[in-house]
Amino acid sequence: MNIEIIYISIYSYFLGSIPFGLILTKIFLNKDLREIGSGNIGATNALRTGKKSLGVLTLIFDGLKGYLSVLITLNYLPEYIYYSALLCLLGHVFPVWLKFKGGKGVAVYIGILFSFSINLGVLYLASWLIVLFFFKYSSLSSLISTLIVFICSIFFKGLSESVFFFIIFIIIIYTHRENIFRLRNKKESKIEI
What we know:
Elements: H1 3-16, H2 20-29, H3 43-47, H4 52-76, H5 81-93, H6 106-116, H7 118-135, H8 138-156, H9 159-175, H10 177-184
Helix pairs in contact: 1-4, 1-5, 2-4, 4-5, 4-6, 6-7, 7-8, 8-9
């Protein structure tokens, strides 16, 4: 195996696997985020702690994981940016420290998008906010926004990028499978911003 692949695998995965939601909740509230709300370690569940600033901080730090992973790779080994981005996302979803039970990957994905293109990042956030405004479901916003980015990539990006965004879309569907079940049964929790 190429030594460069090993380096990228290590820093991308381990950057992604840092559970900022869990760490921040422990520091500021002395609570385990996995015992609150949905039990997820991501930004949406951090909002359920009653401290919105924790949700915002979790979103920012998780986003930075994806952004930094791709940025490092872009500067030194740009041919591996998709691999780095994917490993970072998988590190967040399956962190070794938490018995491979992590977050849903949305904040990390937003960071990845901004590292690829500001326009893609803004497109995702705008779509997410519009869907949230009308339906009040964070999960639905994430799913639709990820689909929109994938569809746009087909028309405006190359094949490699479109395939990458399709893989991410499948991962986001997988991480939201329980949310999809609740949405179908009209039992999904709404959020208020």
